[in-house]
Amino acid sequence: MVAERLTRQGLDVVIVDREHPGHGSTAASTSMLLWEIDRPLVELAAIYGFERAVCAYRASLAAVTGLLSLVRSTNVSSEIRAKRSLYLATGSSTAELRDEHRLRSRAGLPGDFLDHGQLLEIFGMARAAAIVSSGAADADPLQLAHSLLRLAVARGARSFDAEAIAFDPAGAAVTVGFDNDREIAARAVVLATGYAMPDIVHSRVQAVSSSWAIATAPQPRFRNRWRR
Ligand SMILES: Cc1cc2nc3c(=O)[nH]c(=O)nc-3n(C[C@H](O)[C@H](O)[C@H](O)COP(=O)(O)OP(=O)(O)OC[C@H]3O[C@@H](n4cnc5c(N)ncnc54)[C@H](O)[C@@H]3O)c2cc1C
Could you give the angle at the alpha carbon of 25 between the alpha carbons of 159 and 167, nearest 5°? Predict the structure, then answer.
């Protein structure tokens, strides 16, 4: 996905993977492209305030919508299907889920509240309540990754099989050294290493606090990199 995005911007891209691409955590994925963040909006809003929490939820929804339209518009040989998601109440009370639905509605996020009877009738599930939402998707993760990789390579990206064993961001260019004694100097390096944070990278701008998402304070040099 990263290589597709960067080649779309016309950048000179080199992809390096020590395994066959996609055979890391991508191959293990259960294929669900959900925009609902693991933390309910109510909880996130209590921590960060309504506006920032909604921003995270909207960004997540836009990511799935963007992936759907990318696959459809670029005609890559990968199937992606729009799906609904069902967010189930965990206990016997419906109050928490009603609050969640109310807040999502206020944020303009999609979703309908289903009470016990509606949930049982439509989905055959006996829970107190649920929120059914549009905007999710599923796709074969390996097929999708390979299709996007082929697209990036067709646009000029070069793909190499090697392990990065040295990393030096101190100069004007970032230098990465490999186990085959080769070295690459680049203006920017994107670490798309799945759940593995290479121990050669010692960063002062970010720290891993969750394997789910990594965020830094805005980096002025890259302000426009991921904008559409
Ligand atoms: C069991 C499971 C289920 C999941 N289910 C879902 C789901 O339903 N929906 C969802 O959205 N996400 C899911 N995920 C998460 C999702 O699979 C990952 O977030 C995603 O695949 C990460 O893609 P990636 O390309 O960054 O990493 P990967 O596919 O792991 O690729 C990273 C590559 O970098 C290589 N690498 C690492 N270090 C170096 C180095 N020093 N030099 C060279 N190469 C290196 C690795 O060997 C690997 O091949 C799931 C993950 C797991 C494990």
Answer: 50
95 lines ligand 1 (CB under 6 A): no
Question: 216 C-alpha vs ligand 1 centroid, how far in Å?
Answer: 20
Angstrom distance (rounded) from CA 193 to CA 156: 22
Tell me what the mean pLDDT of segment 151-178 comes to.
94
Ligand 1 pocket check for 194: Cβ under 6 Å: yes
Q: List the structure tokens of 115.
A: 């009470």
Predicted TM-score (pTM) of this structure: 0.87
Q: Which CATH class is domain 1-21+155-207?
A: alpha beta
pLDDT tens for each residue of 211-224: 666 666 677 766 66
pLDDT averaged over the chain? 90
Cβ atoms of 104 and 54 within 8 Å: the answer is: no
- DSSP letter at 224 equals T
Give pLDDT, residue 144. 94
Q: What residues form DSSP beta bridges with 166? A: 177
Query: Could you tell me the residue ranges of all domains in the chain?
Result: 1-21+155-207, 32-139
Distance of CA 5 to the CA centre of its chain: 13
